[in-house]
Amino acid sequence: MLRAKLILKIAGSELLVIKTAAVVEMIHAASLLHDDVIDDAYTRRAKPSLNALYGNKTSIMLGDILYAKGFFELGTISPEVAKIISNAVIQLSLGELKDVSLSNAFNTDKAVYLEMIYQKTASLMEASAGAAALLAGKPKESYMTYGKNLGLAFQMIDDLLDITADEATLGKPALHDFEEGKTTLPYIYLHEALPSHEKETLKSLHAKKLRPVEQQWIKSKMQEHQIIQKAYDEARQLIEEAIALMDSRGEAALSGIALQMIERDF
Ligand code: FPP
Ligand code: MG
């Protein structure tokens, strides 16, 4: 419940703030219900997903119910807050479409990856922080930048964990993203670093079920070219900017949340 946590830390615990936090979590849950249908994912947080248990139709409709109830409540909070959150949902949907279409081929363009993770993940954190700042009468822009950086770093670290964490920790097979066709930042960096014949080998492994020896090849090449460190440094830089911004405003709790993000296990 990271998004709700941000809202409460920024704006306190007035009823309207608590409502906003609850609504954002309902919208986030709705987006994950739809996402698991789109991704054909049968596990969520190491448990069977709702679509695995009850089918796609139930998941889509439950998502719609959460979404409709959430937006009704937003209408009772403020038009400005509703507008920020509504814009984020448009970005989420565009990001999800981009994520799906990017999986059809090996993407080597870092800017395209960054735009997609901004839309898919960071936009709702940016909007959550902005809405909370509005409610608390704090300067919206600083908090939105904080939320955006946090969201980008969160997705980058999540993409890294798909490579470094074991199956038991992830609740899904390791290197699952690449098998699904997702060329996340480490794969873009690895592609840049490899000599041309190895670039072809990497591309030939894209979007297919990997044998253990192929998984090992990818992991050893990542190690050889220090790719994990490079991608991690990029996430850390975003977090450092977010921390500096919050430190300058005396927001120690928000700096703490940002710090926790890069101190996750690898
Ligand atoms: C997870 O990405 C997906 C998202 C963060 C956004 C999904 C957004 C939509 C389906 C559109 C919005 C819809 C509504 C109803 C608000 P992922 O697949 O990379 O991550 P995962 O490993 O957690 O599945
Ligand atoms: Mg998914």
Question: Can you offer a commentary on this structure?
Answer:
This protein is mostly helical. α10 packs across α13 (227-247) and α13 packs antiparallel against α14. It is globular, with a radius of gyration of 19 Å. A hairpin with a 2-residue loop joins β1 and β2 (47-48). The longest helix has 27 residues, at 110-136. It has a domain at 79-263: Farnesyl Diphosphate Synthase. The protein has a two-stranded antiparallel sheet with strand order 1-2. The mean pLDDT is 95. It has helices spanning 2-11, 15-38, 50-54, 56-75, 79-102, 110-136, 140-164, 167-170, 176-179, 185-193, 196-205, 212-224, 227-247, 252-262; strands spanning 43-44, 47-48. The site of magnesium ion has 3 residues, from loops.
How would the blueprint of this fold be written?
Blueprint: H1 2-11, H2 15-38, E1 43-44, E2 47-48, H3 50-54, H4 56-75, H5 79-102, H6 110-136, H7 140-164, H8 167-170, H9 176-179, H10 185-193, H11 196-205, H12 212-224, H13 227-247, H14 252-262
Antiparallel strand pairs: 1-2
The chain binds farnesyl diphosphate and magnesium ion (MG).
